[in-house]
Amino acid sequence: MGEERDKTDSGPRPESTAGALIAAALEIFGRKGFDSTSTREIAAVAKTNIASISYHFGGKAGLRIACAEAFAAHIGALINSLTAHEPTSPTEAEDLLLTLIDRLASHLIGSAEMRPLVAFVLREISDGGPGIDIIYKAMIGPSHQRLCRIWALATGEDPDAEAVKIFVFSIIGQIVYFRIGTAIVTRRMGWTDIGPGEAAKIVQVLKANLRDLIAARRRLPK
Amino acid sequence: MGEERDKTDSGPRPESTAGALIAAALEIFGRKGFDSTSTREIAAVAKTNIASISYHFGGKAGLRIACAEAFAAHIGALINSLTAHEPTSPTEAEDLLLTLIDRLASHLIGSAEMRPLVAFVLREISDGGPGIDIIYKAMIGPSHQRLCRIWALATGEDPDAEAVKIFVFSIIGQIVYFRIGTAIVTRRMGWTDIGPGEAAKIVQVLKANLRDLIAARRRLPK
DNA sequence: AGAATTCAATCAAACGTTTGAAAGGTCAAA
DNA sequence: TTTGACCTTTCAAACGTTTGATTGAATTCT
């Protein structure tokens, strides 16, 4: 029973061997994919022995799940911090919506700190990996539901309507694509990469889009 | 100990070994990723010997590039067929824009025929594979540039403006996400998968979004 | 016949995992 | 305080399997 976690620190711990393995695996899994990552490379980056992976996580697959759990734990606090305030009026909901999209996009696109975590999650999703379940429950499910509620309050639509759910996904899709298709975007834009400066320009466009969409829906009577 | 193969078959199409390998690789690469796909599985699906891959394409990496080229050739005709008509007025541009998004989204999300091709391309993009160059030149570059032109005509903005380019990517991102995040979307929506029926609902939302965004931009004076 | 292609068999390298021993820590008994 | 048994953790080495690629003979086509 060698399971222990440090509650004072957020994210994977670089101190213990298990924490170092999770941190290393999270980064390499995200960058190269699960199958393309060898246990030897993970152990080397974590500065430990290969056998530690089997010892602590039962194997490579177990380490993958531990990475998803570590991400969920790390992102949980961030989600909760954004869930503190609940809007009561449509205008308040609109402001909150714009703020949330700003934060979400900045973290997803621009943040260098979040880059490995985001890469891991996106790869897990597009690969249909076993981490989807954990990630969905910890992050996507609650976030999407909440965004639907706020959007419904802002526009007067039904938060449980199919079209509203799809719409919220389309907004998220706008953001996610700039991470997935970074190689394409940078090439077309003439950028070398998407740093904070480029991310700011993108966020500006996405916020303008959302503003226009809210205005268009608000104009329609219930 | 072998099974006889009738070469004088009257099968549906007499496919060459190279063609069968490309078709098989395209499908498996798209579904499982390049590294996770073994040459043995490709050869088995293509009903040929492993050595054929090295013989025809010089190796696994060569087959990957051949897949990208095959996709580019296949998609080139489709792109050209949509590029036939050039709009002259803003309203004409708006109609064309909506039509193009409809076609693009239907092919990307709903089409069962295109599914393997789309999966391969998206994986190549997110993996930063060597096929990006071919795919960009054959499909993404021309398409994006053209969409920028049409959008600019519809709204009176500058087709070379940075914000316009980013905006067009955001529209594409809306579509792509429903392919990338199919596992997430179906789970939240309570669907089993995204077939033609679900795709139609999504396209409807995306077209409404685009309509609203055009109206909002059009309203602003030049 | 001669070139082009496909085949079974085989190669070295890399893979994830396992092994048994060594190292580190804890704690009750001496 | 010292001792020694016990448990956890780390380590080098090796395991069997699978990988992409290659070989030379067999087959097919021109």
TrEMBL record, chains A, B:
Bilayer-crossing residues are: none
| Pfam families recorded | CecR_C, TetR_N
Record domain HTH tetR-type: where: 15-75
Gene Ontology MF terms = DNA-binding transcription factor activity; transcription cis-regulatory region binding
Question: Where's DNA bound on this chain?
Answer: 38-57
Q: Does the keyword DNA-binding apply?
A: yes
For this protein, the record's PROSITE patterns field holds:
HTH_TETR_2
Q: InterPro entries annotated for this entry? A: Homeodomain-like_sf, HTH-type_TetR-like_transc_reg, HTH_TetR, Tet_transcr_reg_TetR-rel_C_sf, Tscrpt_reg_YbiH_C
Q: Which domain of life is it from?
A: Bacteria
Q: Which UniProt keyword terms apply here? A: DNA-binding
Q: What is this protein called?
A: TetR family transcriptional regulator
Q: Which organism is it from?
A: Rhodobacter viridis
Q: What is the lineage of its organism?
A: Bacteria, Pseudomonadati, Pseudomonadota, Alphaproteobacteria, Rhodobacterales
